[in-house]
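Worked example 3 (structure in, sequence out).
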């Protein structure tokens, strides 16, 4: 067992989160697959300080290191609701960290502080119908007008989209300026012209809401611009590193859960008068799973140790996201195999893990895009 990483220092924090998870999440996981989780859970998480562990105290955070944020994610993933864990991470560590990095005092006060407190829910609007992997192909336009901007366009697959109080979105502010023609905005969801599509039906992550968002002549004041005009693409590339690293954290925790479920089941299930865990072929499956999860965790903690020191390593982050999401899906699939027909039934939690795990090789940049990034940094 790896013990010398900073993550092991957060035992008290882990205990607090685990208790919350056991009382407030675990009993409702099945129900939320059908109904979606209630937004109220975000308020409770905010009260307990779960969104702010990695943020400065002056904004309501507790100023701990990055491993504290990872510890919170790992404990929430262990509850077995991939949809809630994804929604949590989008809010806590994907949509709000650009505000800390680029926000004005007013933006920090109006968006980051209430987001950390769980009073406002955030969503992140990058993907568009014609721009997925090719983010630069996005078509949402922000036109400069007196006192602000007018936004027109649409976003798709937006996590928290139905419940969000505000959306951080990227739009084109100058079509002729190439990569310098994008900017990021903070847009309130109650703005006139902002509308939300229906909740999309998904293979997994069913407790979360994923939706389309339409922007029709939405006016936002100049103060809605996050960071500098024209620097949105650069800012987004910075944001994606954090997004991928916390996603990799969720994948390693998810893979561990699939392995734990497999070990438990294999010890309990009897066939041919013995627990199936005594069959060499299954013991070897489990040993392979253990090895892969260990390797993914080692890579994750090593990359996170650099991130924690402020060193952003895009190649290593993409390697970590690629490997962790593949290990998660392979472990989920093998765990289902070990569960036999029971694993395919809804009442066995491995069926949900299997559905949820599949997204991770797509969302936050697909496997193929991670490989493109790795190859680029290998200068091949
Ligand atoms: C449940 C869910 C939640 C999501 N949440 C959010 C969210 O909150 N906010 C947000 O902005 N987005 C969100 N997304 C969008 C997600 O990030 C995109 O789906 C993802 O980036 C892939 O884009 P795409 O779906 O358009 O696929 P495409 O880009 O169309 O890709 C299709 C296939 O082509 C491959 N491909 C594309 N380009 C290349 C290339 N250059 N080289 C090799 N292969 C390539 C891809 O790898 C993939 O296999 C979410 C998606 C889902 C499904």
């Amino acid at each position: 067992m790896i013990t010398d990483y900073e993550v092991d220092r957060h035992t008290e924090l882990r205990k607090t989160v685990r208790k919350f998870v056991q009382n407030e999440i675990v009993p409702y996981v099945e129900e939320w697959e059908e109904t979606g989780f209630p937004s109220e859970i975000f308020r409770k998480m905010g009260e307990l300080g779960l969104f702010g562990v990695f943020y400065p105290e002056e904004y309501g955070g507790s100023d701990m290191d990055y491993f504290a944020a990872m510890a919170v994610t790992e404990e929430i993933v262990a509850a077995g609701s991939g949809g809630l864990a994804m929604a949590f991470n989008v809010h806590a560590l994907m949509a709000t960290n650009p505000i800390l990095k680029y926000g004005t005092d007013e933006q920090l006060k109006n968006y980051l502080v209430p987001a950390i407190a769980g009073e406002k829910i955030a969503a992140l609007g990058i993907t568009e119908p014609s721009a997925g992997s090719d983010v630069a192909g996005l078509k949402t336009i922000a036109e400069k007008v007196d006192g602000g901007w007018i936004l027109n366009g649409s976003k798709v697959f937006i996590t928290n989209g139905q419940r969000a109080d505000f959306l951080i979105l990227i739009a084109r502010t100058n079509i002729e300026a190439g990569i310098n023609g994008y900017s990021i905005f903070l847009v309130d969801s109650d703005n006139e012209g902002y509308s939300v599509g229906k909740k999309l039906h998904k293979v997994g992550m069913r407790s979360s809401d994923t939706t389309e968002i339409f922007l029709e002549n939405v006016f936002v004041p100049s103060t809605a611009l996050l960071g500098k005009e024209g620097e949105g693409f650069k800012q987004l590339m910075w944001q994606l590193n954090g997004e991928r690293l916390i996603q990799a954290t969720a994948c390693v925790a998810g893979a561990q859960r699939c392995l734990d479920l497999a070990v438990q089941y294999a010890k309990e299930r009897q066939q041919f008068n013995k627990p199936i865990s005594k069959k060499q072929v299954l013991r070897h499956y489990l040993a392979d799973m253990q090895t892969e999860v260990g390797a993914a965790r080692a890579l994750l903690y090593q990359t996170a140790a650099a991130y924690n020191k402020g060193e952003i390593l895009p190649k290593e982050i993409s390697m970590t996201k690629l490997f962790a999401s593949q290990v998660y899906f392979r472990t989920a699939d093998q765990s289902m195999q070990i569960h036999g027909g029971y694993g395919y039934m809804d009442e066995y939690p491995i069926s949900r893990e299997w559905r949820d795990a599949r997204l991770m090789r797509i969302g936050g940049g697909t496997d193929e895009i991670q490989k493109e990034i790795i190859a680029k940094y290998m200068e091949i």
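Notes: Residues 54 and 65 are 6 Å apart (CA to CA). The chain is about 50% helix and 15% strand.
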